[in-house]
Amino acid sequence: MHDLNLTLAIGHCLYFWWEVRKLEKPKYVVTRTLKTRQTPFFGTTAEIRSYAPFLTAEVTLEGCDMNMAMGSGFRQVAGFIFGKNKAVDREGAEKVSMTSPVAMEVVHNEKIGMTAPVMSQQDGGGVYKVAFTMPSKYTKDTLPRPDNPNVKIIEVPSRTMAVLTWNGGVPREETTASKTQELRALLAAAGVKSTGSVHVWAFLVSFRLPIQRINEILLEVESK
């Protein structure tokens, strides 16, 4: 019986892993590799990608730390895609398909933006934007209208991003600051200039094991 339960549990995890892997993601082309992973599951990779335009549903949160912002932002945007909206072509609501990743833009956080060693205390006065990417079948005109006035539909233009990828738990402020410094150091060594805010993307958010989670730090860079 124990072996059967273990087999079912493993099968359940693999099923959800595959289903989440199939979720639609922003489309991009890799234009340059900055760092390759030394082992299949540990370490980091870094590359420069050219992203196609996409839509997001986004909320802005102020005066909180990163963990609080991610939780509140996730709930608000998830509410929108799960039916707290008005369809544009018929009466009632429309469920929007889930995509990946859950995205956060760190508009202001002194700890994440710093270049000195990472400190342990939390900054409770940050400004964050939390967003879900919308399925590519929608345009801004055909996407349902959010009931929540905090949820905004944003057209993200094509852009070139430097991306650092690693496996680990839900990104916290300390990890985000450390990974951002690592990416900036790689860019400096490659002679590439970054601009704008820090972006944090979390994939496979339904999994609890850190090794099953994929996280990314993104910085916009000058396109060549």
From TrEMBL:
Pfam families: SOUL. It comes from the Eukaryota. InterPro entries: Reg_factor_effector_dom_sf, SOUL_heme-bd. PANTHER family: HEME-BINDING PROTEIN-RELATED (PTHR11220), SOUL HEME-BINDING FAMILY PROTEIN (PTHR11220:SF58). Belongs to the HEBP family. This is Heme-binding-like protein, chloroplastic. It comes from Auxenochlorella protothecoides (Green microalga). The lineage of its organism: Eukaryota, Viridiplantae, Chlorophyta, core chlorophytes, Trebouxiophyceae.
